[in-house]
Amino acid sequence: MAHKKGVGSSRNGRDSNPKFRGIKKFGGEKVRAGNIIVRQCGTKWHPGSNVGLGTDYTIYALIDGFVKFEQKSKLRLKVSVYADKQEPAVA
After folding, report:
1. 66: which residues sit within 8 A by CB, 6+ positions away?
2. Residue 11 phi, psi dihedral angles, 5° rounding
3. CA–CA gap between residue 69 and residue 19 (Å, rounded)
4. Euclidean distance between CA atoms 56 and 16, whole angstroms
5. Ramachandran sector of residue 20 (left: φ over 0; alpha: ψ -120 to 50; beta: rest)
6. What angle is formed at CA 66 by the lines to CA 40 and CA 29, rounded to 5 degrees?
7. Per residue in 26-71, pLDDT tens?
8. What is the DSSP letter of 9?
9. 14 falls in which pLDDT band (50, 70, 90)?
10. DSSP code per residue over 28-75
11. pTM score, two decimals?
12. How many CB atoms lie within 10 A of CB 47?
């Protein structure tokens, strides 16, 4: 005889909460200091000018301004915040 109970439904029911990751503010959107721009696993997006990187890789604005998604290098993408809608000066 089997000594295991055949109770499927009472042993189910465990699931993790959703993490709500992704881009929260898109390019050209106005942000205030402290606003979350991207929630991510690892650094798919790297921090650029005037943004901070949290311990869970959240990118957030350090100043009031507009979001800009840019190319950091051939393989890396970065997120920056600029104080006005003008394009940044190319060095």
Report:
1. 28, 29, 30, 31, 81, 82, 84, 85
2. -90, -10
3. 23
4. 17
5. left
6. 70
7. 999 999 999 999 999 999 999 999 999 999 999 999 999 999 999 9
8. H
9. confident
10. T-EE-TT-EEEE-SS-SEEE-TTEEE-TT--EEESSSEEEEEEE-SSS
11. 0.78
12. 21
